[in-house]
Amino acid sequence: MLEVWPDNQLAADFFASQVGTCWVHTSTGMGAYVSGLRWEALYPLMDRLQLAPDAWRELHADLQVMEAAALAQINAKRD
């Protein structure tokens, strides 16, 4: 089981439950890769949480860190 610090629980839960279908897949002459999250799809879901502005920005920043880490793993598999 993965332990998540309380300060990161919201971001971890959101990432696990909402992000799975929101990746941008890009094709090139060299093949396909994942280039990032579809933030236009995630922002309305984040807004539904009705967070205070500072908490919303913190969630966004946390998700960006998770996006970067996930992309490094996802795209490493294609090399």
How would you characterize this protein structure?
- With 79 residues, the chain is of the alpha+beta class.
- It has a domain at 49-79.
- The chain has helices at 9-18, 39-47, 53-76, and strands at 23-28, 31-37.
Gross geometry = globular
Query: Which value, in Å, is the CA radius of gyration?
Result: 14 Å
Biggest sheet architecture: 2 strands, antiparallel
Can you give the helix content as a percent range? 40-55%
Largest sheet strand order: 1-2
Instruction: Return the average pLDDT rounded to an integer.
Output: 90
Helix and strand content put the structural class at alpha+beta
Q: How do the SSEs run, as a string of H and E?
A: HEEHH
Strand content: 15-25%
Q: How far apart, in Å, are the first and last alpha carbons? A: 29 Å
Total number of helices: 3
Residue runs with pLDDT of under 50 for 5 or more positions = none
Number of E-state strands: 2
